[in-house]
Each structure stands twice: as C-alpha cells, then as structure tokens.
Amino acid sequence: MLHPQVSFESSQAYLAAESGRDAVPGVQSPQAQPSVQDRGVRLEIRGLSKRYGQRQVLQHTELVIEPGEFVAIVGRSGCGKSTLLRLVAGLEAATQGSIRLDGQDVTGLREDTRIMFQDSRLLPWRRVIDNVALGLARGAHAAAANVLAQVGLGDRQPDWPARLSGGQRQRVSLARALVHNPRLLLLDEPLGALDALTRIEMHQLIEGLWQRNGFTALLVTHDVQEAVALADRVILIEDGRIALDERVNIARPRERSNPLFGQIEKKILDRVLQQPGDAASSTEPVWPATPAHGLRWAV
Amino acid sequence: MTEQVRELQVTPLPDAVDAPGLGFLPIGNVGPSQAAAFLRDVGQRLLPWVVPVGLIALWQIASSLGWLSTRVLPAPSEVIKAAWTLAASGELWTHVKVSAGRALAGLAIGGGLGLVFGLLTGSVRLFETLLDSTIQMVRNIPALALIPLVILWFGIDETAKLFLIAVSVFFPIYINTFHGIRNVDPGLIEMGRTYGLTRWQLYREVILPGALSSILVGLRFSLGLMWVILIVAETISAQAGIGYLTMNAREFLQTDVVLVGILLYALLGKLADVFARGLERYWLRWHPGYQSVAV
C-alpha cells in the first residue's frame, strides 16, 4: 500500500480550509427547513477502517454528514466507495472505527436506512406494486401505490418487472426504498446502467423526492457530473482515504450551463485524474512478478 | 437421461406449429403476392405433418393389401376398433385408472421426498455436508438395477412398483431443487435482508420463487422417467393396469390390443408433459420466456 499522493493529514487540512470558507453547512440550501430537516439522520463516521484479508480497503476515514444533507462519494472503481456504503448500511462490519446515526452505533441492518442498488434487484416474480410493498405489513398497498405514483409509474402497478425499461425499474426500486420513509437513503451507483437522457430525468426525480422528504442521502457514483448535479458535498475517495471534500453551492434546480457547475466539475475531475500515473505504477509490479512461463493463458 | 432431454425438447414442437395455422385467413384485397405468401405459410405449417400422416396411410394401405401380417402389425383402423371396443366395455378405463394411480402415487412419494431433501440440502449447509455426497452416490445406481432386490424385499405386489417409481423420480427433483436454490441471485437475497424480511418471508418471497423454474424442470424430467419405470414395473407382473392389458393381449396374440396399450402410454406421457408445461406457464408467467403473447 504505497501511497505518496494524499496523506490523511493533508486531506484533513483541506477539509478544515473548506469548512472555514463555508458558513454552517446546509443553511443556505432551500431544503433545510427545520420540519423537513428533522426527517434526516446525522451520520458520523470516525476512524473507519475496513480490511479484507490482507487488502486494506478503507483507512481511518472521517466523515460527518448533517441531517438532510445530500452527499456524493466519487472515486475510481475499487477505491472503497461501495465498501463505505455497505458499512454504513450495516451489511458488513468495520475492522476498526465507528459509524453512528444520530449518535447510535450501526451494528447491523436498520429500519430507517434503505439502499437503492445499482441493479434494481426487483423480484421478477412479483408485480410492480408487490415489489414496492415488499416487507410492508399486509394492506399497505395504498402507501405503495402512492409512492409509485410519485415516481411517475402509477399506471404500471400490475405489470411484471420484466416488462419495464431499465429506467422504470430503477424508479420502482426508488419507490420501494422510499415507501419505508427512510431517514437515510443510500444510493449505490443507481444510475450507472442508464442512458444519458434517462439519467437526467432520474436526477430531477431523486432531487425532487429528496427535497420533499428531507432524508439524508449518500450517493456513490463514478460520474462526477452526476455528483455535482445532485449533491451538497462531493467527496472523493482515493485508495481508501478521503482525498477531497468539495462543497457545491449552486442553487437548485441546477443548470448544467451554469459556469459554476462546470468549474466545480472540472476541479473534481482534475483531482481524480491526477491519480492514474500513480495507480498504474502501484499495480505494475504485479505483472512482472509472475514469470511468463508461470502463466496459464485462457485462450 | 439424455433421451429424456431429447424427448422433452421435441414434443412441444407439433402443437406450437399446428394450432394457429389456419387461424388468420386473409380477408379483403388479396394481391397475388399475398396469396402466395399465405400459401407458403400454410405449406410451412403443414410440412411437419406430411411424414407421420404419410406413414400411417402407407401402413393402412399395406395392411389392407395384405403385405403386412395382422400378427406383425394390424391396420390402424383395427387398432382404433380395438381401442373403441375396450373403451366401450369400460375395461380400458379401469386399467388406465390403475396405471395412472400407481404413477401419481409414486411421483407424490418420490417427488415429495426429493423436494423436501432438495430444500433441506439447498438451504442448510449442515444438511448438504451430511447428505449430499451420499445422495449423489446413490443417484448413480440405475433404478432398474434394483428390480431383483425390490422383488426380494417387497415381492411383486404394489409396493414394489411404487418403490421403483418413487426411487427413480426422487433424483431429478432433488438435484434440480438443490441447484435451483443455490442459483438464486444472492443480490436478491441481500436486498430482501436489507428490506427487513424475516427468514421465513425471505424463503417464501425470494428463495422458493427463485428456485421454482429449476424445480419444474426437475418435475418434467421426473414425469418422463415415471412412465418408463411404470411400464417396466407393470411388465414384470401386474394384475391390472396398462402393462397387464398388453402382456395379457400378447398371450392371446392380440397385436391390436398391444398397440392400443403402447399408444396409451404415449398419450399419458404426453398428457403429463402438457400438464407440467401448464404449471410452468402459470407459475413462471412473470418470466419473459414463458409469457404468451396475450398477457
């Protein structure tokens, strides 16, 4: 684990500078009315490390997310961003450190946390409405139908998931998450498999529902533009560490034509792109370490 | 086993082809090209029937002209006549009922056990370690190799037949249930857990439906095997049933009745397959591969 680029201290310093420049987080944004803000949960991650065998995936991660805040985590694939999300969801246990929701330690799956996965993970043998009502008490179909209407699929209740397009499936999946009224919504690259137009539609939908419901949202994505379009803060993870914490102070609804949008996107992207040389050199020794005659080719 | 696969795959073809064939007669302005296309379409649909119908016609002609001895092969019309006589006397139905009863009872016992054991070993790691290798070992013994042992154990009465059928249908259902459960998408199970499903709910909502298509494949294999074993078991000895009917007819040189028995087996096998496919079409109606156009 050679990692000369960003030390933990420097990212901390960066964080301090950032928050100094900023006023109290979340206050200027329009969704921060107190009544709605109560719905979101405060997420506090302290000294979080995760190790799979010899492989260190997350190292001493520190992150605080205010109630009702929308935070996006970006990074190259394999940087540990999905692991962070799974730890917050309680799907896996941390090697070290703590995750707290409103001061309570996360020890397992929680009722007020819901995940939206990259693949929609709808049950193909349940109709759309029954998928949304999954895990609800009997007779909760009215609530399910209501949320389904909110994501614009009110008329697709009796359909099989196989009949829906990819974007529609993700909307059903979003409805299924929201019907539980989560206080923390985790989004694990939910739009990664969708086409550009559908993604923009989904951005508007997610943003609207977040503003209306006031939950805290944590979005993992590899798309910097998506992160800037949706999030109050964009966090870059590199090699298991937080390398950048960028606040996005653009009024909503955000226009991609806004020059500030482009600036922030470029800043984050540039920072992401600093990495490839180092990434390549750090993985390079793996190849020559195996002598060619020791390899078995699959062709 | 491979023959079973082939049979299962081939049998659906004819009805898929014949039914909608003459359903849409072109009405209104029929151009010459349209008429030609229509004729070609009808030709395509009739083509698979040319050979079987031709063979039967040839058979009938050969019998009528005396080229074929009635002891070798009676004319198709004779076979139909024999079937009619047997049906009218009620004898046919008694035998069919006995045979079908045996087959279904064997299937219920063997298939039920296969399902239960498949569910156990598929879901609980302990049972897999405990049972699976033993079951896989026993599976390699052909059920028919057990006949001498079965006769020693149970004699030649009903129990022996039920045992043979149950043993042979156990394995296809067991194996397919086991693999069906193991192949349920782990992502769906994780989703179910995060959405707060209890263990039982997870089983009922996610794991069982996910394994169902595989279980039904096992059922279709079992149904094919069930008839084969039934025929052998009834041929060994029986006091009633289609096997008894044919063996009896053989003693009296009634080749036409023997043929009726053979055709009955074919018919019952086909019926069982149609039934299994009906189940698939109903239970897997969510699956794009099983959806009929009208849904």
Question: What does this entry look like structurally?
Answer:
Chain A is 36% helix and 20% strand. With 299 residues, chain A is α/β, with parallel strands linked by helices. The two termini of chain A are 32 Å apart. Chain B is an all-alpha fold. Chain B has 2 domains: 2-64, no CATH class; 76-290, Orthogonal Bundle (MetI-like fold). Chain B has 12 helices and no strands. The longest helix of chain B has 38 residues, at 199-236. Chain B is flat and about 75 Å long. The model of chain B is unreliable at 1-27 (pLDDT under 50). The chains are: A alpha/beta (299), B mainly alpha (295). The interface between A and B is medium-sized, with 21 and 23 residues.
End-to-end separation of chain B in angstroms reads 34 Å
Overall radius of gyration of chain A: 20 Å
End-to-end CA span of chain A: 32 Å
What's the CATH topology label of the domain at 8-112 and 182-282 in chain A? Rossmann fold
So how many helices of chain A? 11
Query: Total helix count of chain B?
Result: 12
Average predicted local confidence, pLDDT of chain B: 84
CATH architecture of the largest domain in chain B: Orthogonal Bundle
Q: Please tell me how large the radius of gyration of chain B is.
A: 24 Å
Count of domains of chain B:
2
Q: What is the overall silhouette of chain B?
A: flat
Major sheet of chain B, described briefly? none
Q: What percentage of the residues of chain B does DSSP assign to strands (E)? A: under 5%
Q: What best-fitting shape of chain A do the alpha-carbon axes yield? A: globular
- Helix/strand class of chain A: alpha/beta
Helix-strand pattern of chain B, N to C? HHHHHHHHHHHH
